[in-house]
Design goal:
The complex is a heterodimer.
Chain A (H helix, E strand, L loop, with lengths): L1 H20 L12 H9 L6 E11 L5 E13 L2 E10 L7 E6 L6 E6 L4 E5 L15 H6 L8 E11 L2 E10 L2 H7 L3 E7 L5 E7 L5 E13 L2 E11 L5 E10 L11 H6 L2
Antiparallel strand pairs in A: 1-2, 1-13, 2-3, 3-4, 4-5, 5-6, 7-8, 8-9, 9-10, 10-11, 11-12, 12-13
Chain B lengths: L2 H17 L1 H16 L7 E2 L11 H13 L5 E7 L8 H14 L5 E7 L5 E5 L3 E6 L8 H12 L15 E8 L5 H14 L6 E6 L1 H35 L2 H24 L4 E2 L4 H27 L5 H33 L3 H22 L1 H8 L9 E3 L2 E3 L2 H15 L1 H20 L16 H12 L4 E9 L8 H15 L4 E5 L1 H11 L14 H11 L18 E8 L4 H19 L4 E6 H36 L2 H25 L5 H4 L1 H26 L4 H30 L5 H22 L1 H9 L15 H19 L9
Parallel strand pairs in B: 1-8
Antiparallel strand pairs in B: 2-6, 2-7, 3-6, 4-5, 9-10, 11-13, 11-14, 12-13
Helix pairs in contact in B: 1-10, 1-12, 2-8, 2-12, 3-20, 6-7, 7-8, 7-9, 7-24, 8-9, 8-11, 8-12, 9-10, 9-11, 9-24, 10-11, 10-12, 10-20, 10-23, 13-24, 14-21, 14-26, 16-19, 19-20, 20-21, 20-23, 21-23, 21-25, 21-26, 23-24, 23-25, 24-25
Classes of the chains: A alpha+beta, B alpha+beta.
Chain lengths: 271, 816
């Protein structure tokens, strides 16, 4: 823990001078590199499984709002990750459900249940840069759940600042090549990472042509069963004016999720 | 104030002007500089929307609809390959792929909103589910793979006629802009890109789209203006030289021109009025008008110089102005009245401003002609013009004067023939006018061989068309559009639209829902229909969003699922074609669509065009009528005789009819550009009649000439001046005929024809009419009109002698 203490003292130093030195590049030795910071983020514990309620609020550029309430489950099987989302509201989509298996190497598998059809249908895998369920998050954003895609970018620490009273590193991530950039839909991402708890507090992204694209803010970060968790995520799409807000509640990392949840039978049966 | 006090006032005014000539000239310079300084801030506005009053309901509604559904005017690139495989061969698909990637790299193009065969997904139903995948991830390498892509595309109704031609021989790349106002640059970048594209034999690339049209038009107009204005100025200078053959006669009017054009454009810029497509004609029009006053003043000036070479320059100038201020003031007022008519009756902002600033220019031309011009002349030593010489107490008339004189004599002798001819032409004119067609198509602004016109033609031929009529469907509550009954109604509306001429296709959420229903039912063709369960509709939309962008359905349905947009594609932008469809759709909506729960309204460019071009017709005839009435009122007031007003208006009324006839027989549409001709031809053409009548009045009423004698005096002097005035205008407008902007060519040509007609009418019909009816206003109140010509002749000779003794006024060429 010497490292943390070291960091702590640095944190104090910086917060004292931060009012004058926001965003200045850090020239001191003994600094973390961008990559090391990214590794710290990904080393954070996020629980082997979780169940939670998720309310998605989507607001178009004219201020019209769609609200969808869901109950979701996620569980790791080694590096494989399984996710189930059941829609609760509004009524006309109640019991609609999506089941996804994310494999570390292969394309993901996805099934869907439409209650009005009473059929489970397999749907083709989504691309990483595709938008997730009509929100402003991409499938990649969702898959990473507050972590970062280390291998997709080259990382560079470009400064530090105080964000919402927390010291953070500003890390610039540039896709390693044009192909990855096109896949992700990002030409550049700037992460603001809390140096204390290694949570991303803000992400800003630009499209492949350098136009300002999105800002994601991670709010209401607190510990749930010792795991740091953002309870509210907010995305503003600067190009479309569309906004998305994710509100999490009833988060439970401890109880565990039964394997039966991640099956086609469960998809059909519902909650 | 009676007439005498006017004369005294005018005389004092010109005394004053010539007393401080340098101050006046300096003030004139300041005025020019003061207004011209704003010119660089002029903003171009080449949008076709600029022609519509900003508060027109159709426009407001269209803007609202565009906002609700996020409708844009994208750039469109068409790739055509008419070989056997069409675009479905490895080479052409590789080209599509290459262009799609390159287009996304252009500045100001939204890389996320570039749509083509290389970006779009195919939705395929499978046994256990649904596949959403790109038509091709990498371009195919074999013809067999290309054939498979063709099969997949042809089985996807949503893209046919839209992204890919129904024949498979053309495909589009559609690119949205981030900043629509920078379309001009993007269009240029796209053309440059297309130049570098690795095309193979048989492949052609065209760039089009509303954004491209607006963008290109800006460039087109700039180039045009830079060419037209110098030519117009040069031609006018040449005419001035031929007319006066002196340096001052050639250069001084140019100073007035500078002031006129500079102040009109400067004030436009200062008041933030945009430079519209038709504003291009304004400088040219003003150049022609601005010299008219100068021509008449200088003609009189040189006559005075020739007669009184011993006087001081100041005396000569004052005398010139005392005689000329009245006719040039009257013609200024009548010309302004014509432009006022255009401005007041027109509903289109560009025309309102055109009328307004032309009016201002005419006013400034007058101001400079009665101040700076005499001030400058009073500073210059008297030097006779070779065109104005007296030899042995007689005018040495130059060939122009002689030609006019013999022409006048002929008219006077054959006035009955002239009037009969006039009646004949009038009858033909009325017949032609009945053939006149109100019509407009925006693309006709460009020459036919312009790439943008070819692109438009090809795209409208190969695809369903890029002229959109939007039908906005409105329901009462959020999510009411999930109701299958409502969806069926939309489906029926689309089926009806498909029966109308020039309608080749339409798209709405109904088409997506049917495609989805088919994909989720093992791709069975019979499942290409609307789901019957409203919950299923809701779930289909949710499913679609599983891989779609949040704004995916933005163009078809609003966020509440309360409003839907049906986009009907037409292959023509011609008003008469649009009219049929708009009126039929409106009828259908009223009779078969609207209920208490659901209703529809028309929108889109086709609907807006329909409404404002209809307005154009009404406002055209309104502005002609108003211009004629205003000119008639001005002339009547000036002559204090309504009959005189009517006689003044006859030549311009005749010329308007004549233009209608030309348009009717030549099949020229009454459109944006051409609709302005009439008010302008009236305002300008009436000058000939005013000068003629003014002079006749002086000659007959005050100097007691007989009619024939008056004609003999009038033609070589006023007639000659009018001839050059006419030449300046006709050649000035003629310059527009060399424009690249087609409406300006038509406009310039028609105004030139109109001015020619009113010049000829003023020199023929007008005197013939006066000779036939002997109007009272021309003759002294207590003189009977019935005096015999011989009596008048003797009187005249005495009178002339008397006048000559006093002021050596007009030197008669005939009887002395």
């Amino acid at each position: 823990m010497t490292f943390k203490q070291n960091l702590f003292s640095q944190f104090f130093l910086i917060s004292v001078s931060s009012l004058m030195l926001v965003n200045t590049a850090v020239a001191e030795t003994n600094q973390l590199s961008g990559l090391e910071i990214a590794q710290q983020v990904n080393a954070r514990d996020e629980g082997a499984s979780v169940s939670r309620n998720l309310t998605m609020e989507m607001i178009d550029r004219r201020g019209k709002k769609r609200v969808r309430e869901t109950r979701g489950f996620r569980k790791y099987y080694g590096e494989e990750k399984r996710t189930m989302i059941f829609y609760l509201k509004p009524n006309n989509v109640r019991k609609t459900a999506f089941l996804t298996y994310d494999y570390p190497q292969a394309d993901d598998d996805q099934w869907l249940y439409l209650p009005a059809m009473r059929k489970v249908r397999r749907i083709s895998s989504s691309d990483r840069g595709d938008y997730f369920l009509g929100t402003d998050f991409t499938y990649e954003d969702i898959k990473k759940e507050g972590k970062v895609g280390i291998e997709d970018y080259t990382w560079k620490m470009i400064g530090e600042e105080i964000i919402d009273g927390h010291h953070s590193y500003i890390v610039e991530a540039i896709p390693i090549n044009d192909k990855v950039a096109r896949e992700l839909g990002y030409g550049k991402v700037i992460y603001h990472i809390d140096s204390n708890i290694w949570m991303v507090r803000q992400t800003k992204s630009w499209d492949v042509r350098g136009n300002e694209l999105k800002t994601i803010n991670f709010h209401d970060i607190r510990q749930v069963q010792d795991i740091w968790t953002a309870h509210m995520l907010e995305v503003n799409n600067h190009k479309t004016g569309h906004n998305t807000r994710f509100l999490f509640s009833d988060i439970d990392y401890a109880t565990g999720v039964a394997d039966e949840i991640f099956t086609q039978q469960a998809l059909r049966r519902g909650l | 104030m009676n007439k005498v006090s006017y004369e005294i006032w005018a005389s004092r005014f010109f005394q004053a002007v010539t007393a401080f000539p340098k101050t006046i000239i300096f003030a004139g310079l300041i005025l020019i500089l003061g207004s011209a300084i704003f010119i660089p801030t002029l903003q171009k506005d080449t949008r076709s929307d600029a022609f519509i009053p900003p508060d027109h309901p159709a426009l407001i509604y269209r803007d609202k609809v565009e906002d609700i559904f996020g409708l844009k005017d994208p750039m469109v690139i068409a790739i055509v390959n008419e070989s056997q495989t069409g675009v479905f061969n490895p080479n052409t698909l590789a080209l599509v792929n290459w262009l799609t990637e390159q287009v996304a790299l252009i500045d100001n193009i939204d890389p996320e909103r570039v749509t083509s065969l290389a970006t779009e997904n195919d939705i395929i139903g499978t046994e256990d589910g649904m596949l959403v995948e790109e038509f091709f991830e990498a371009p195919p390498t074999t013809q067999q793979q290309a054939n498979q892509i063709r099969e997949a595309v042809m089985d996807f109704p949503l893209y046919l006629g839209n992204l890919v031609s129904r024949e498979g021989d053309a495909t589009l790349i559609v690119a949205e802009l981030i900043d629509q106002t920078q379309a001009q640059q993007v269009y240029a970048d796209l053309l440059a890109l297309v130049e570098q594209a690795p095309t193979q034999q048989g492949e052609r690339i065209h760039v089009a789209g509303e954004g491209a049209v607006s963008g290109y038009m800006g460039e087109y107009i700039d180039a045009d203006a830079q060419r037209l204005n110098p030519i117009a100025a040069l031609i006018i200078t040449l005419i001035l030289f031929v007319a006066f053959r002196t340096l001052r006669g050639t250069l001084l009017p140019n100073f007035v021109v500078l002031a006129t054009v500079g102040s009109a454009l400067g004030v436009m810029a200062a008041f933030d009025v945009s430079f519209f497509v038709i504003t291009n004609a304004l400088p040219v029009v003003l150049i022609g008008i601005a010299v008219a006053d100068s021509i008449h003043i200088l003609s009189q000036y040189y006559e005075e110089v020739a007669q009184q070479p011993e006087d001081t320059p100041r005396q000569v100038v004052i005398r010139t102005m005392e005689k000329m201020w009245r006719p040039i003031t009257v013609t200024t007022l009548t010309t302004m009245a014509g432009f006022l008519g255009l401005s007041l009756a027109s509903v289109m902002p560009p025309m309102q401003y055109f009328g307004l600033f032309a009016m201002l220019g005419v006013g400034v031309a007058w101001l400079f002609s009665v101040t700076v011009l005499p001030a400058a002349l009073s500073l210059l030593k008297l030097k006779p013009s070779p065109a104005y010489q007296i030899q042995q107490n007689q005018w040495k008339i130059d060939r122009f004067g002689l030609a006019m004189k013999s022409f006048g004599g002929w008219v006077s002798r054959h006035h009955v023939v002239v009037l009969l001819l006039a009646v004949l032409v009038t009858i033909t004119g009325v017949m032609g006018a009945f053939k006149l067609e109100l019509n407009e198509a925006r693309i006709t602004i460009f020459q036919k061989d312009e790439p943008i016109v070819q692109a438009d033609t090809i795209i409208n031929q190969k695809f369903d068309g890029v002229h959109y009529l939007d039908v906005v469907v409105e329901t009462a509550q959020a999510e009411d559009l999930f109701n299958p009954d409502h969806l069926k109604q939309i489906e029926a509306l689309q089926s009806y639209a498909a029966t109308l001429p020039h309608v080749n296709g339409s798209t709405s959420i109904v088409d997506y829902l049917k495609q989805m229903n088919r994909a989720l039912n093992e791709d069975r063709l019979d499942a290409y229909q609307l789901p019957i369960d409203p919950d299923l509709v809701a779930q289909y939309f949710l499913l679609y969003s599983a891989s779609g962008d949040p704004a995916d359905f933005e163009e078809e349905v609003d966020y509440d699922y309360r409003l839907a947009n049906v986009r009907i594609r037409m292959d023509t932008g011609i008003y008469t074609h649009e009219k049929v469809v708009v009126e039929a759709m409106q009828q259908y909506i009223t009779d078969h669509f609207n209920t208490a729960d659901i209703s529809a309204n028309l929108s889109g460019r086709v609907n807006v065009d329909y409404h404002w071009i209809k307005l154009l017709g009404n406002s055209h005839f309104g502005s002609v009528a108003l211009a004629l009435i205003l000119v008639w009122m001005m002339a009547s007031l000036n002559m204090r005789s309504m009959v005189a007003g009517v006689i003044t208006v006859v030549p311009v009324a005749f010329s308007v009819l004549f233009i209608y006839a030309v348009m009717g027989f030549a099949g020229i549409w009454l459109a944006i550009g051409t609709s302005m001709f009439a008010a302008i031809a009236i305002g300008l053409g009436v000058d000939f009649a005013v000068h003629t009548i003014e002079r006749l009045k002086v000659l007959i009423r005050e100097q007691k000439y007989s009619f024939d004698e008056a004609i003999a005096v009038l033609y070589p002097s006023t007639g000659r001046a009018l001839l050059f005035n006419f030449a300046a205008l006709v050649l000035g407008f003629g310059v527009l005929a060399t424009s690249e902007v087609v409406p300006l060519i038509k406009f310039g040509t028609l105004v030139a024809v109109g001015i020619s007609a009113s010049f000829i009418a003023s020199m023929t019909i007008l005197p013939a009419l006066i000779k036939a009816i002997n109007p009272v206003f021309l003759y002294p109140e207590n003189t009977s009109v019935n005096i015999t010509p011989s009596m008048k002749m003797t009187e005249t000779i005495h009178l002339v002698d008397a006048i000559q003794k006093e002021r050596k006024d007009d030197i008669q060429t005939k009887s002395i």
